[in-house]
Amino acid sequence: MRPSKRAPAELRPITLERGVSKYAEGSCLVKFGDTHVLCTASLEDGVPSWLRGQRRGWVTAEYGMLPRATHDRTRREVTSGKPSGRTQEIQRLIGRSLRAVVDLEALGERQISIDCDVIQADGGTRTAAITGAWVALRDCLEWMGARDMIKKTVLKDHVAAVSCGIWKGVPVLDLDYAEDSVAETDANFVMTGTGGIVEIQGTAEGKPFTDEQLMALMGLAKDGIAKLVELQKLAIL
């Protein structure tokens, strides 16, 4: 039995609450069980200097954890002068995941910045952030469309993410911290609503995993992401 009493293929309780930020063009508070992430989308006029004149836009992301998102207080990274390697890796992952489903030319020479702030962490913060960030991005694009700022469909598909792992020899879906901290294998899957694979991150924590175990994790991820996409669709009704 998993620590959370869930079945191996069972997600944590998931909620996606839109419009939680008064000022952002798009926002979503996403909860994967006890992991809570606030995602806001901000429209910025213009693009990075290396994109100027190319007639296309950009979607980027920043990620951070509040000092008491975990059991012990951690210092804000701004006090150290730069984000940690983990933070940089996660925010790049979020940006890549969102750009995979965005028509950057249809966006025009504008940038949308997605801020993902972890309020409370219990495993799977990056996967929750990607899933909630899509909702915030979609609402930002809807805001732009209502003001005739975009003429074409910019968002091509859904994108969501989920973690899977081998815990006590069993492939399981959506690991919380109690499982993630001791899992033999830990993997993150990012996929589109139509089943396309954006990114897979998988690591063995000791004993290497097999092809069969990888396929089992892939099957769990596909089913889990399909459910997350359905929740995204319900959230934006």
Topology:
Blueprint: E1 14-18, E2 26-32, E3 35-45, E4 58-65, H1 85-99, H2 104-107, E5 110-120, H3 125-146, E6 159-167, E7 170-173, H4 177-180, E8 185-192, E9 197-204, H5 211-235
Parallel strand pairs: 4-5
Antiparallel strand pairs: 1-2, 2-3, 3-5, 6-7, 6-8, 8-9
Shape label: globular
Determine the structural class based on helices, strands and strand pairing. alpha+beta
Strand content: 25-35%
Order of helices and strands: EEEEHHEHEEHEEH
Number of strands: 9
Number of helices: 5
Main beta sheet, described? 5 strands, mixed
The average pLDDT value, as a whole number, equals: 95
Lateral strand order in the biggest sheet = 1-2-3-5-4
Kindly state the percentage of residues in helix.
25-40%
Taking all Cα atoms into account, the compactness measure Rg is 18 Å
State the low-pLDDT regions, or none.
Answer: none
Structure description:
Residues 10-140, 159-223 form the Exoribonuclease phosphorolytic domain. Its EC number is 2.7.7.56. Belongs to the RNase PH family. The protein is of the alpha+beta class. The chain is built from five helices and nine strands, in the order ββββααβαββαββα. The protein has helices spanning 85-99, 104-107, 125-146, 177-180, 211-235, and strands at 14-18, 26-32, 35-45, 58-65, 110-120, 159-167, 170-173, 185-192, 197-204. It is globular and about 55 Å long. The chain starts with 13 loop residues before the first strand and ends with a helix. The model has no long low-confidence stretch (mean pLDDT 95).
